[in-house]
Amino acid sequence: MSEITVVGSADRTGWTPLRDAPGRLPSPGREVDVFTSGDEAFTCGLWEREPDTWSFERPYDEVAYILEGSADVEADDGRVLHLGAGDIFVTPKGSKGTWRIHETVAKCFTIYTGGPIGDTTMRVIGANDPVEWITLDNPPGDENAPGQEWYAWRNPDAKFSTGVWRRDPETGTFDREYHEVACLIEGHVEIETDDGRVLPAGPGDVIVTPEGSSGIWRASSPVRKFWAVHHE
């Protein structure tokens, strides 16, 4: 599948109850699947859960961008990690802990089921935490100001990575050699696909550009996005 799609997080009418919902509440929360790679190792979606408490052990790597709400997650080593809107939460394969949601949490989740167990340390990168931005090289002929990014997680097998990217307003083409799912943190863009569709996206929207897709990216304002990439 190489069709480009945009899924909004604000309209949740099409979301479905969580499968095997954790916790004790009668209400199971809601979610919507956004993308699954052909090898089924990489899945992404949007997820919402009301205040509740439950324990977990990750059978996969998950990196999530918190859209709204607040929670504490107690790690197996006793650390308590605080989550709020704009934070990125990394729970590697093999990590264990307990969720305690205080205000209904919504998140954009990215999951990778392949690869070995590596570092199992859970961590939160806060919305205002200092990070190491890397300036990217422009492709030949691109005279726009270069973009920058930082990495939140890279899997030991190098097939799954996530981070945050930013760039000034610009127009340019793209041709994906990997699967990318991105949640816009700020800014407004239009994506023109090869078949002539124009897909607008703004903060909270999830943009899927699978391997083999191509098009034109038009950003009318400075953009920041949380991204996750998978190489099949």
What does this molecule look like?
By secondary structure, this protein is an all-beta fold. The chain has two domains: 15-125, Jelly Rolls, CATH 2.60.120.10; 134-230, Jelly Rolls (Sandwich). It is 0% helix and 55% strand. It has no helices and 20 strands. A hairpin with a 5-residue loop joins β3 and β4 (42-49). The radius of gyration is 17 Å and the shape is globular. The mean pLDDT is 94.
The 3D shape can be described as globular
Task: Please indicate the count of domains.
Answer: 2
How many H/I helical runs? 0
Helix/strand/pairing category: mainly beta
Q: Span between N and C termini?
A: 13 Å
What's the CATH superfamily of the largest domain, by name? Jelly Rolls
How do the helices and strands follow one another from N- to C-terminus?
EEEEEEEEEEEEEEEEEEEE
Number of strands: 20
Radius of gyration: 17 Å
- Measured by DSSP, the beta-strand proportion falls in over 45%
Mean of pLDDT: 94
Name given to the CATH architecture of the largest domain: Sandwich
Largest sheet: 9 strands, antiparallel
